[in-house]
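Lecture notes, unit on binding sites. The following record was shown on slide 14. It pairs a sequence with FE2/S2 (inorganic) cluster.
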Amino acid sequence: MRSVPRVNQIVSDMAEIDLERVLCSLAELTAEGCREFTIGTGNWPLRGLVVQTSAGVVAAYVNRCPHAGHGLNLRPHKFLTPDGSLIVCSSHGAVFEKATGVCVAGPCVGQGLLPVPVTVADGYVLLAADVDPSILVAD
Ligand code: FES
């Protein structure tokens, strides 16, 4: 007979995760290929996106296009080309590699999205512990 974890055991397992740094779950990322996140409050929170490459690499970027500084998406969580292989800016069509954030076509070729350092723990993608999100907003 399989044992069912008690509620306090689940809470105990989750206690080591800083919930304010959770960007998304791996399950969400696997199912949809990309997730949008907001860390912080007020007028200037950190807004970003998390992607997973076909090789399983997880990467995150600030949601700001290097071409004109616009947010990349028009619809929630929609950042990818139709085949899911690249990140696309909805403003003028720049496309970026998922693994590096480098623009490979469009008006800002050779420039890149600002990376957000992340860690993966217990099925969640987290903002890395040593990163101050306000620094990324200011860049
Ligand atoms: S703002 Fe992204 S391509 Fe122009």
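Take-home: The helical segments are 7-14, 26-32, 133-138.
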